[in-house]
Amino acid sequence: KILEVCNCDETDIEELVGIISSDALLSARLMQIMSSAWVNLNKEIQSVESAIIYLGIESIKNLVLSISVVQVFSSEKILRQFNMNAFWHHSFRCALLAKKIARRSGLASHDEAFLAGLMHDIGKLVLMVNYPLDYQEILEKASSDHDLEEREKRHFNFTHAQVGGWLCQKWNFSPMISDAVLYVNDSIDRARYALFPLVKIINAVNRLCSPETLESLDHDQITDLVSIDQSELDPLMTQVACEVEAMADSLGLKPHGQPDGFRSPALYRLAASGSKADDIALELIQDSLKSRVKEHALIYGTIETLLQAEDLPALLNALDVGLKIIVRVSTIFFFLHDSDSNMLTGFCNDREKISRIINSIAISFDNKESLLVNAIISRIPLNSLNVRDQGRLAIPDAQIIRLLGCEAMFCLPMYLPDKPVGVVVMGVDTDIAPDLIKNTEMLSMLARLAAFSIDHRQYRSGHGNFVKRERAEAASDSIRKVIHEINNPLLIITSYLKRLSLKLPERHPAQKELSVIEEEIDRIGGLVKELSSISKPPVRQFEWVDLSGLFKNILDMVKKSILVPKGIEADLSVEPGFPKVKTDKNALKQILINLLKNAYEAMSKGGSIHISLKKVPGSVKIMIDERKRTTGKVEIIFRDNGPGISDEIMKRLFEPYNSSKKGNNSGLGLSIVNAIVKDINGTIECNTNKNFGTEFKIILPISSSPKVLKEQDSPTSQISD
Questions:
Q1: Which DSSP state fits 573?
Q2: Which of 287, 614, 642, 645 has the highest CB neighbour count under 10 A?
Q3: Is the pTM of this model over 0.85?
Q4: How many CB atoms lie within 10 A of CB 148?
């Protein structure tokens, strides 16, 4: 109940206080934590409301879950031998009445009165947990509260009231609360001389709320003890009875009456609860509560695993396992939205027999007949059972249901406020469909969290490359301006030098100096030319290219000229069936030569280079609704065992003039590679380690078209600059 209130958009603090206050064990644990060294407050907190305000809703929610789990799994002994329903009714009735009397009496500590009333019999639970067999026998034989205390003294040498008072002291409750619990069963004559009014109030309400003592009670003594008239007390008792039953109903507890033969409410015996049907009903309630607590524990366990997942496959596997445990479905598929292709691409756990098939299929996001697409667009969970009643299923949906191997499917959308992320598809049979529908709100919350986690992982993996590309583009813009500013002065200087050289005799000593100056200007011109290669994207000519043949020829040529003399070995491996790629042949030549040159310069002591070509697994998708395939992608991996790249260089890897090499190296090689890869619709990433070397991974589509340049980026406009 608390978790339901906490999960609302606007949590009602008063409702939360009321629910927590209705549970003696939960309230006690909460107040114990508030007074512990862990919280370390400068001032004392004595009310549940103050504790909630201090800790906050989220902390309370987690705390309640933890306490509930411990309570459910550690109280089996109590639940089998102790009527917790009767115990709860009596404790909560005392707490409410104590609070009302304290408020009517003008006492400032009415919240403490409530807590003391809730805690006054806590000692019985302590004895039941620690001495279940002994205490069960005592409860069986006791005929009244007084008799119960006498038997406790003889057997344990202490009473449950003394245990409760001691426990309150250990939990650092105020002396007023611990004393009220300690003296709860003392005679009225003794209680009337207590220093704290709270001792008198708790002593009185315990009697007023116990049917055994109520019949023989001297009402004048009670009203005198708490300084309240009988005319005021009767309405309070009526209010308390109504509030207790209302709270019991909201928590799913059965009404608590007074059946014949009920000897003492202090005993709370199951035998006194009446018919066997009552006992069965109580067990069902307890089983239901256990099930809900376990369910919430599993949900939060799944959430924690989602947040800790390192990559997308691990995240989806965690969600797969969590959902299968929580909702007990056997098969789950995921379809993630690919914004570039506007498709829903399939994914499922590798342990599934049909994972290869699911990972290879896709559905067009334009197919509005599909339940999967409609679930994401409408942001509402949908199931095929309803559609089947209204008409035929879309062909892709019918195919997916057959792959699920179930009677129907349940589509749970994953989305963010500004974009779709995907859909969880669960195979269901008609017998478990009602459970899924009933838990739609909980499942939707889990799906939204999964959407956030998926988007975060995708953002984190792509953000680094995005930042590098943005920096490279910004640098390219700056370079264009620099080229423009350098070319004009160079042209003027070169013209003046030639004019000066013509005016001087051929053997004039200055001719040598002029020659040196001309050489340096040519070198500057070479640097400007290199700059131009990344600032002026050429018009690409896309054609079908045999990458394996192209790379083999380049590698053979470079081996003889520069690699072997320096002690560098190089090899190429090609996956069987590797396809031709529609791309720019010259661009790939330039990429490979630059990467080889980069590795050659880094491995001064020799080493090895390995190049591999293979298809990207799962990149070929079958569009089951359009009866066609996507072409997929290929992967070019360039790996060397050199010294690796420093952290400082890695931060700006693809930016111009970023190099650790000395000499005439301009630091433009990798920035050129990055620009070319982007220009042919690919992506590039780098991983490096000083112990294992450096790896570049380039992903290219098998079939694509040249990018259309904007007018301001066209070659003619750049050349005119």
A1: E
A2: 642
A3: no
A4: 21
